[in-house]
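Something for you to look into today, if you have time. What I am after is a single protein written out in full by you. I want to see for myself how the chain folds. Could you add the entry underneath, on a fresh line?
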Amino acid sequence: MLHTPSKRASSRQTPDPRVLRPVRQVALAGLALVLVWPAARGYSAWLGWLPLWLLGMPMTAWWALYRFRLPSPGRWLQATFARSRRAPQARRRVQPVRGRARAAASALARAA
């Protein structure tokens, strides 16, 4: 039987720094090119839309090195959800049967 690492253990692993560093540098260089050089925001007949290749693909590779994990929500998001539901939801009041009969009888008496 092969030993497979648990999902929890594999999610804690960090990417190999020898791969992560060049991918990060390419992504940041692409970001700098797109922000500084207007021609990098255009279209190339050979490559297509340049920001996709200069910024989108390196950022996706960077994200893939972290196994497509989403960033953890900040404290402000947790505080927002905690604040929104402090009190219990209001419940509809149910009239007793006698009260409904009296209300219906008084409504009929008013109408007559």
The mean pLDDT is 77. Residues 15-67 form one domain. Helices lie at 7-12, 17-36, 50-65, 75-84, 97-111. The first strand starts at residue 43 and ends at 44.
